[in-house]
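Sanity check

After download, print the first record. It should look like this:
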Amino acid sequence: MQTLVFQLQGPMAAWGESAVGGYRPSASYPGKSALAGLLGAAMGLRREEDASQLHALHDLYRFAVAIKEEGRLLRDYHTSQVASQSALKKRPHASRRDELNVPQEDVNTILSTRDYRSNGNWLVAVQAMDDAPYSLDILAERLKQPRFVLYLGRKSCPPAAPLFPHVVEVETVHQAFARFDALLQQAWVTAGNPEQATTPIRKLAWEDGMSMGVEHDLSTWRKDRLIHRGNWQFGDRMELIATMDLEQED
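Expected structure tokens:
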């Protein structure tokens, strides 16, 4: 089956989960809503204008993640200033400067604690359903030349390496990840860096319906099924997890 594979690496990433109060946690690997949003940014879809297409990216593609390095947990105590809604009413505010250009008494300070993953390394596999709006080849080309800037969960977290997207023909997703690592190793040799070695996969996570090629150790629910992006509403989705035996892999 055709599978699109690409890598996500960065000094900082934030894969948001359910947030309560002022705490903004991060998962150790990206969820489906984050990956669909990444593809939407690459395609140039605007969240406020293309809700149906964003839903199509979420509903008509399946995603799997290979966790090579989940990244070290980094916690930030965050303060920000936000103008009240009443102060912004009928006032144009296209920029941050415009938003804060209100009387000081109408500016509120919001406190939050935000989690990040430092120096993470993930591979992503994407498979398209029959009625998917874009072919995997088109998605790969857009990931090479994205319309909007790509980031790893938050705007402050850009990728540190090219995504290196490739579409491969394989029977299982596990084979797709192995094929991608071989292509990446070949690229390093061509670039004159043959001593660079790929990082082994420590964990696999995939949604039900994909042929991974390994048995899962557990199944769990994850709240990243898009319901309404504008209202930040997400539902539960079944996810399968497998922990890799690194000694056996070697």
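If your output differs, re-run the checksum step. Summary of this record's structure: The helical segments are 32-43, 51-59, 85-88, 96-100, 136-144, 173-190, 246-249.
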